[in-house]
What does this fold into?
Amino acid sequence: MDNILITPKNEKQLQLLKLLLEEMKIQFRYEKDETELEDKINEARTEKKEGKLLTIDPKKIWESI
It folds into this structure.
């Protein structure tokens, strides 16, 4: 199934969209802000630079752990 990204301009639009999707029984996932994802990515990059991030080779899963 395809995904649709909708960016409301204000809180009122957000609430109306949520109500509409719930009324139509359309499954949706709400994420507060893209900056949260960016923060997690930047944190992972920092951990990788510091050698704290565990990298797993998918071809050798058990040896990588």
Summary: Residues 11-64 form one domain. The radius of gyration is 19 Å. Residues 45 and 51 are 10 Å apart (CA to CA). The chain has one domain: 11-64.
